[in-house]
Amino acid sequence: MRIFHLLFVFVSCIAATSVYADCAPDSIGTIYCSKYPGGGAEADSIGTVYCGKGQCKADSIGTVYCSKTPGGGAGVDPIGTVRCTGGCERGSRDMCERAK
Fold first, then answer.
1. Which of 47, 50, 55, 94 stands the most exposed, by the fewest C-beta atoms within 10 Å?
2. The pLDDT value given to residue 21
3. DSSP code for 21
């Protein structure tokens, strides 16, 4: 029974880590995705999509920040600051590709 429990936990951890990149639409509906497996994509306050190595979020003024860690997480705290696994970096247009 204990082996089953450990196997369940292991499989759950793998399933929680996405190998797929996030995608997001820009202000005119064009979809952009991160070039990085597990990377993020998020639109800023004017609808421009920025991408990163990890998950991306927009802060309280619409600036996009992404986790520096490939596949890393990002979230916005109660005062609107983006916090990231392994630290944050500004999202980049160069890290995006247009979805086909």
1. 94
2. 86
3. P
Q: Report whether 70 contacts 37 (CB < 8 A).
A: yes
Q: Which of 98, 87, 95 is nearest to 40 (CA)?
A: 95
Residue 4, C-beta contacts closer than 8 angstroms, at least 6 positions apart = none
Q: By CB neighbour count within 10 A (0-12 exposed, 13-18 middle, 19+ buried), where does 96 fall?
A: buried
Q: Which residues of the chain have pLDDT under 70?
A: 1-19
Helix (H, G, I), strand (E, B) or coil at 64: strand
Helices (H), the chain: 2-16
pLDDT of residue 20: 82
